[in-house]
Design goal:
The structure is a single chain. The chain is of the alpha+beta class. The protein has helices spanning 2-68, 116-128, 134-143, 157-161, 188-194, 214-220, 226-238, 244-250, and strands spanning 85-87, 90-98, 103-104, 109-110, 113-114, 198-199, 207-208, 262-263, 268-277, 280-289, 297-302. Strands 1-2-9-10-11 form a five-stranded antiparallel β-sheet. Strands 3-6 form a two-stranded parallel sheet. The protein is globular, with a radius of gyration of 29 Å. The termini are far apart.
């Protein structure tokens, strides 16, 4: 009987020791998980801070560029992409893109009303990209202040309220081109095709002919074909356009550009940064407005 009791006591003691070991292991795992989580969170914080520092770097570059020159072209320092640069416990890379080299979708509407000349320009761009011309009317309706649909598959509140998840037309300028996902007909494939050629800026802007793609030049200059536009781009790679007159003089005979629709300088730029820090990766973008002297203002920024 005594031997049996001793056996039970030994088994109980072993059970207690096992439970204690399991508890200790659980505590160690919990502490390790917490430490790892804290480490990762710290890395993410540092990575986001480096992205913000990168945006300030872009602002400094653009401010210095404005002091040194009134012309913006792709041979300037701001247009050079930074190679991956080592930073403490990580890597940083970034680049700046001129947003006035693209077609500003918000130009379609001024003071709440459709700008017919800009609508025609956007239609030319759509044709050139093999996209439905009716997309221009749908976007014009999304931006304009009235509730009267445009003739070619326009879409006002009635259309959007009939969707499975209803909503209203914005009736205001786009803040970012990602908003196109809400507009009738602008599916993922359309948006991907348009993305290299369009932007959304907070006011009416001219196109910088020193940075615009050939397709954008064709869109804004009635009568210019793609081959001639490509020839102009090849010319500016050898010698950028000094001013509007220089550009107009190099246009093919018989082609006329509207003076206030073209420029050789820019006020809006997109800064894109990517940072790895420890185990974390952060990416951020910022729209910068260089309207006056000093550092460009941040119109908006996205740092997830």
């Amino acid at each position: 009987m005594i031997a049996k009791q001793r056996g039970i006591a030994i088994i109980l003691a072993m059970g207690v020791v096992a439970l204690a070991a399991l508890a200790a292991a659980a505590i160690m795992v919990s502490q390790s998980t917490w430490a790892r989580h804290s480490e990762l969170e710290g890395d993410h914080v540092q990575a986001r801070l480096l992205v913000q520092a990168g945006v300030d770097w872009a602002r400094a570059v653009l401010s210095d560029d404005r002091r040194s020159s009134s012309v913006d072209h792709l041979g300037e320092p701001w247009a050079l992409r930074l190679p991956p640069m080592p930073v403490d416990n990580g890597e940083f890379t970034g680049y700046i893109e001129d947003q006035q080299g693209a077609f500003n979708l918000n130009n379609l509407v001024q003071d709440g009303k459709v700008n017919l000349a800009q609508l025609a320009s956007f239609r030319r761009l759509l044709v050139l990209l093999d996209l439905p011309v009716a997309l221009a009317d749908a976007l014009a309706d999304w931006l304009d202040a009235d509730d009267l649909p445009q003739p070619q598959e326009g879409a006002e509140d009635g259309y959007y309220l009939s969707l499975p998840t209803p909503y209203l037309a914005a009736n205001r300028p786009l803040v970012d081109v990602t908003e196109l996902a809400l507009v009738r007909g602008f599916d993922e494939n359309v948006r991907a095709r348009l993305r290299p050629f369009v932007t959304a800026l907070p006011r009416f802007t001219a196109v910088n002919v020193n940075t615009a793609k050939p397709e954008v030049l064709v869109a804004i200059i009635d009568g210019l074909d793609l081959d001639a536009a490509r020839a102009l781009v090849a010319q500016r790679e050898r010698a950028y356009f000094l001013d509007r007159a220089d550009f107009l003089n190099r246009l093919p005979g018989g082609i006329v550009a509207v003076d206030n629709l073209i420029s050789v300088s820019s006020n809006y730029f997109m800064a894109t940064m990517r940072v790895t820090y420890g185990s974390a990766t952060a990416r951020g973008t910022a729209l910068l407005a260089r309207e006056t002297s000093g550092w460009p203002a941040i119109v908006w920024r996205k740092i997830p």
